[in-house]
Amino acid sequence: MRLALLLSLLVLLSGCTTPPTAPSWSEPVTVGHLGVTDLNESSGFAPSRRAGNVLWSHNDSGGEPVVYALGTDGTARGRVRLAGATNNDWEDIASFTLDGQAYLLIADTGDNRAVRTDCRLYVIAEPDPADLAPEREITVPVLWTIPVRYTDHPRDCESVSVDAAENAVYLLSKREHPVGLYRLPLRPASAEATPAAAFLTKLDHIPQPRGPRLLVEGPPGRMAGMPVAMDFAADGSAAVVLTYMDVLLFPRQAGESWSEALNRTPQQLKVMAMPQSESVCFSADAREIYVTTEGERAPVVRYRVK
Hints:
The protein has 306 residues and is mostly beta strands. It has one domain (33-304): 6 Propeller (Neuraminidase), CATH 2.120.10. It has helices at residues 2-17, 258-262, and strands at residues 29-33, 42-47, 54-59, 66-71, 76-82, 92-98, 101-108, 120-125, 137-140, 144-147, 157-163, 168-173, 179-185, 198-203, 227-232, 238-243, 247-251, 267-269, 277-282, 288-293, 299-304. The strands form five sheets. A five-stranded mixed β-sheet has the order 2-3-4-5-9, with no helix packed on it. The longest helix is centred in the N-terminal third of the chain and has 16 residues, at 2-17. The radius of gyration is 19 Å and the shape is globular.
């Protein structure tokens, strides 16, 4: 009887730590190419919360303060300029719904030398799809800005996601190992009252380059394991993290924190060779994942739940 009780206890304990079952994903397929001439350094992807088959993207550092509406095949749908904003180093974009309103959050958080004191997040209302057209640019106001600072020192960050149910923005650092996960309030009382990003945890399970790759400089080599984009599924069921060499899926159990989910060994999806992938997102229904890279006419790669 004691042995039976012990075995039952072990089964219960093991059940508490069993990773959530991840769906099976298809191999990557190229479904189109970015059809906007100006969008040649795509550094973020986010799904529309107002229109099916629309993705949002933007350029990297020094680009115009513009986000681009695209079809899921990369075709141009429209341009949206952020009034009064500056693209110092835009590195990611997230979409979310709060109180029935759809929003976009653009992360001006790139900091290669870890010296910036002006990193920030811009939040705009996602435009009405009826206002978008391939040949048209519209201008929208920034609804609120969230300063980004850390309790110790500046750091580079290219991976930002929103959990609207938590009223929180999550940031994943880049140029350190293990990388750090941080959190900021999505709706701070005021920009002046925004606290420093709260450190949550170090992530030990992001795969790192080995062997000959360590002899190569840049993204194909030593930098290959650095996170460059992140997205949360709208239903909270998973996170996807993109590095220069991997598409990493982190399933999440009900009631589990993002810190717990991201500290598990990820599911590695098969990758398609691209020069410098820096954009990833789920579709709005979380049944597809989209990836693209920097470069003109960059391919749009799709994974789909089988």
